[in-house]
Amino acid sequence: MWLEKAAIKIQAWWRGNVVRRTLLHAALRALVIQCWWRSVQAKTLEQRRRLALRVYTCQEWAVVKVQAQVRMWQARRRFLQARQAACVIQSYWRWHASQTRGLIRGCYEVRASRLELDIEILMT
């Protein structure tokens, strides 16, 4: 009888060891699968993040380009307005200078084939 009890204890111990070893192997396999799955998820997340960053960068670059074009157009428009204003001022200044610097006296007569001019400029 004591041999039976001893055999039962040995068998129970052995079965316990086998079950624990099996559970340990299953837990290790589950851990390996979990680590792999987390790495797959991390790679996917990194790819999505990079794609979103690339799209955002392209959109920002497009916005910057449009803003630069608009600012260039505005600057050119202001330059052309200033140039037109300068031309108007210069033309009035030249007209004023020609009127105030001297008197232009002259006589001319038109003949059949040519124009004769006799101009006298008096500076005051």
TrEMBL record:
Transmembrane segments: none annotated. InterPro entries: IQ_motif_EF-hand-BS, IQCF. It comes from the Eukaryota. PROSITE patterns: IQ (PS50096). It holds the Pfam family IQ. Signal peptide: none annotated. PANTHER family: IQ DOMAIN-CONTAINING PROTEIN F6, IQ MOTIF CONTAINING F. This is IQ domain-containing protein F6 isoform X2. It comes from Equus przewalskii (Przewalski's horse). The lineage of its organism: Eukaryota, Metazoa, Chordata, Craniata, Vertebrata. The gene is IQCF6.
